[in-house]
Amino acid sequence: MKRTLIAIAGFGLMASACSSYGGPSDNVVRNAAGGAALGAVAGAIVGNNVGDGDAGRGAAIGAAIGGVAGAIRGSQQDRANQSRYWDANARAYYYCYPQGDCYWENGTRRN
């Protein structure tokens, strides 16, 4: 049980570190952290109930899978919140997030 709590706390700290560098949006970070936490708990429970008694490894696997799934879901939410515009000079579409950041369709930042 002690190893499980350490694993869950470690993954929670790693997920919160992602939010401090300012790269991904709030939805991606929030959903990744929530997915990692839920995945760690579920993995610890499953790892303990399987019979090998290694809840720490189950928590690590669950946190990794949950974090990825949460980040994907947050990215989908961000896409839904975007506005798409046409730039006649560049002859290309670009997207803007509600926070004001704009990107071309290929993912590069629009100045």
Would you give an account of this structure?
- The protein has helices at residues 2-20, 26-49, 55-81; strands at 83-87, 92-96, 102-104.
- With 111 residues, it is mainly alpha-helical.
- The chain has one domain (2-82).
- Strand 2 (92-96) and strand 3 form a beta hairpin.
- It is rod-shaped.
- The protein starts with a helix and ends in a 7-residue tail after the last strand.
- Keywords: Signal.
Distance between the amino and carboxyl termini: 51 Å
Taken together, the total number of domains comes to: 1
H/E series: HHHEEE
The overall pLDDT average reads 76
Pfam family, one: Gly-zipper_YMGG
InterPro entries: Gly-zipper_YMGG (IPR027367)
Domain YMGG-like Gly-zipper: 31-76
Protein name: YMGG-like glycine zipper-containing protein
Topology overview:
Blueprint: H1 2-20, H2 26-49, H3 55-81, E1 83-87, E2 92-96, E3 102-104
Antiparallel strand pairs: 1-2, 2-3
Helix pairs in contact: 1-2, 1-3, 2-3
Q: What features would you highlight for this structure?
A:
single chain; 111 residues; mainly alpha; 3-stranded antiparallel beta sheet; 63% helix; rod-shaped; YMGG-like glycine zipper-containing protein; Gly-zipper_YMGG; signal
In short:
With 111 residues, the protein is mainly alpha-helical.
